[in-house]
Design goal:
Elements lengths: L15 E6 L3 H6 L9 E8 L2 H11 L3 E4 L2 H4 L6 E4 L3 H13 L3 E4 L7 H14 L3 E3 L7 H11 L6 E9 L19 H17 L4 E8 L5 E9 L5 E7 L8 E5 L2 E5 L8 E6 L5 E4 L8 H13 L9 H17 L13
Parallel strand pairs: 1-2, 1-4, 2-3, 4-5, 5-6, 7-10
Antiparallel strand pairs: 7-11, 8-9, 9-10, 11-12, 12-13, 13-14
Amino acid sequence: MASVSTAPSADPHRVIRWGIVGPGRIAESVAPDFAHVEDAELVAVASRSEQRARAFADKHGAARAYGGYGGILGDDEVDAIYIATPHPQHEAVALACIAAGKAVLVEKSFTATVPGAQRVIDLARSEQVFAMEAMWTRFQPVLVKVRELVADGAIGEVRQVQADLGVDRPYDPKDRLFDLAQGGGAMLDLGVYVVSIAQHFLGDPTSVSVSGSLAPTGADVEAGLLLGYDDGRAASLLMSLRHATPGSARIHGTKGWIEIHPRFHHPKAFTLGRSGAEPERFELPPLGVGYSHELIEVNDCLRAGRTESEVMPLSDTLAVQRVLNDAAEQLGVHHEEDERVAV
C-alpha cells in the first residue's frame, strides 16, 4: 500500500455532505447509491444550466441547485464534491474545489493530460485537501477479496495481467465519445479501466506499446496495449468503441490464476485457480449498483482525516494517466485540458 498523508482533524462520527458538479449520465447512475452509504447526504448540485441542476436535485433529493459552479464552491454545507463533467473540464473544476477547501472525488479519467493531473495532485497535497480518482472498480467486494488473496500469496508472484473492455457504439461525430474537445476516444473512457487494473497488480510499467485505429474526428476507437516491465512481467490490454467484448480480467501468478468475471470493472464474481486444485468460484455482489463503495471510501478517509486513499492513491492515478496519454499520443491523439471552463 502507498503511504498517504493525514490532515490534522478527524471525526469518526461526522456526516459527510456531498455536492455533484456535472449532473450528466454518470452522475445519474452514481446518485442513487448515496442511499447505501451511512452518514452521507447529497445536498447540492451544480451545472452550467441551472434548470438542469434543479431537475437533477429534485429527482435525487438534493436541497440546493446552482447554475454555474461558484455557488457550490461557496456553500459551507458541502464537504465533498463529486466531479462528473467531461474529462477536459476535470482539472479546472478540481482545482477550484480544492482551493475552496472541498474534498474531491474526480470521475475517471482523472484529467485529460498528465500535466493537468499533476497540477491537481500538487494542489491537493499542498493544501492538504482530500482528492481521489473515482475508480470504483478497486472498491468492489470482488476486488477487495482478490487483493487479499494476491497479498496472501494464493497465486504466487503475479507475472501477467490480461483485460478487455469494449462496447458497440455507432459512430456519431457529435457524440462525446468521438469528440476530442470533450476528451473522446476509447483510451480515456475504457482504457482507464484496463490500465488501472494492470497497474494495481503489476505496478508502473517501464514500456508501453500500442496498436489501434482512429475515427474520422481523430478520436481513438480501438486499441491494444502491451505494458512491459524490466523483469519480464507484462499486461495485455484491449479496448474498443467499435465492438463489444466480454469485459473480463485475468491475473496470472506463478502458483495459479484469478479470473474476474464480466464485466470486470463492476464484477459480482471471480474464480480462483490454484496449481493442483479445482477452481473455486466466489460470489460477492456490491451494494446498490456498486458506486457506493467508492463513496464509502471517501467518507471513511475524511472521517479519519486522511487526504488520500491507500487503495486509490494519487500516485497510482498519475501512473495510469501517463500510460493513457503515452498510448494515445503513439496513435496520434493529443488531448488538451479545457481552459474555457468558468469556475
